[in-house]
Design brief:
With about 300 residues, the protein is α+β, with helices and mostly antiparallel strands. Helices cover about 45% and strands about 20% of the residues. A hairpin with a 5-residue loop joins strand 8 and strand 9. The longest helix has about 40 residues. The chain is rod-shaped and about 135 Å long. The termini are far apart.
């Protein structure tokens, strides 16, 4: 015999199905007939036996209450989950005046799109830097049975799973990369947003909920390292700019020397070539405009 005392029972997944309900307009006619029968019984109270009048009046009142209790109203993009003594009997999504048996339980749910902006969450990125993230998510219920019966509170479930998904995605990538060799949170919003949506859809599938849209509303370094990381970003930007500037200057100097030699404009020895290279690099890499000095003598003076 297998010992199952430590086994965890699997969750019984619910599936939405169509409830057997009817239009309320036909039953509204029955309700009017019950009112007419009660009025007719009262009008004949002096012409008929008291027992017959009382029986007809009692039957009309019972029919009136029976029909009246079964009415419910659904607006567009609204559903009603029908239960019978706790047992799920189906979901009605037809808008308008509806009717079902009075002993059926009715729980209305919205299947419209919901928009939520999460609170700012502190997350450690791939490199361990603390960052703050907040997202905007558009979600809606696709399976009312799962949303109502497979999770305790589907709205609270959405909030918790959004936080968990943000932490997962935030720790998967670095915040920034000036070398543009990695996927980053700041530089690849579309790709990271798509992965966040896929992560949320997978997490919320158990509750019968899908995500239509999501994106970041706040993304920044945490306050305790914001100043240091800003200085680091500025330093990296300066280094990257200097590197690009030097590479361009070297290319321009090389091109100038090659063209001077090819066209025999001037003959330069090694010392003068070194001086010319130095002067050109100063001119091209300097942060300020240079002041030209005209040499009125010979080239070697």
């Amino acid at each position: 015999m297998t010992d199952i005392r430590g086994a965890t029972p699997a969750l019984r997944q619910s599936t939405e199905r169509v409830a057997h309900t009817t239009s309320g307009y036909g039953m509204l006619l029955v309700l009017l007939l019950a009112i007419a029968a009660a009025g007719g019984a009262i009008s004949q109270i002096d012409r008929m036996a008291d027992a017959i009048v009382v029986s007809l009046l009692f039957a009309s009142c019972v029919l009136f209450l029976f029909v009246l209790i079964g009415f419910y109203l659904l607006q567009p993009n609204q559903a009603s989950v029908i239960t019978l003594f706790g047992d799920y009997r189906g979901t009605d999504r037809t808008a308008g005046l509806r009717w079902t048996w009075p002993w059926m339980g009715k729980k209305k749910m919205s299947v419209r799109a919901h928009n939520i902006i999460s609170e700012r969450i502190k997350v450690n990125d791939l490199r361990g830097n603390p960052i703050e993230m907040a997202v905007q998510v558009v979600w809606r219920v696709t399976d009312t049975a799962q949303a109502l019966f497979d999770v305790d509170d589907y709205r609270a479930f959405v909030n918790v799973q959004i936080e968990a998904a943000v932490r997962t995605i935030g720790s998967r990538y670095p915040y920034d990369d000036f070398e543009h060799q990695e996927v980053t949170l700041r530089g690849n919003h579309d790709q990271v947003g798509s992965e966040l949506r896929a992560e949320l859809i997978a997490r919320l599938a158990v509750a019968g909920i899908t995500v239509d849209e999501c994106g970041f509303t706040h993304l920044a370094y945490a306050q305790e390292i914001a100043g240091a990381m800003l200085r680091r970003q500025q330093a990296q930007a300066v280094v990257a700019a200097r590197q690009t500037l030097v590479e361009g200057a070297v290319g321009m100097v090389e091109m100038a020397l090659d063209q001077l030699s090819a066209k025999n404009v001037v003959e330069l020895d090694d010392e003068r070539r070194a001086a010319m290279v130095s002067n050109l690099m100063v001119v091209l890499c300097g942060e300020r405009d240079t002041q030209p000095i005209v040499n009125a003598g010979s080239l070697y003076q």
